[in-house]
Amino acid sequence: MPPVLAYHLIARRPDAGIAWTTPKQFERQIAWLAEAGYRSLSLSESLQDRQATNAKGVVITFDDGYRALLQYALPILHRYHFRATVFAIAGYVGRANSWDVKFFLPRFAHLDWGELRALLAAGWEVGSHSLNHDYLPSLPEGELRRDLALSRQILEEQLQTPIRHLSLPFGRGNPRVYQTAQEVGYESVSILGGGNFALRPLPSALRLISRRGVYLWDSLASFRQRVEAPPDSPWQYWRQRAISALAMGTVLVKSIKKSVGRFAG
Question: Which of 123, 162, 192, 206 has an alpha carbon within 20 to 30 A of 130's alpha carbon?
Answer without folding.
Answer: 123
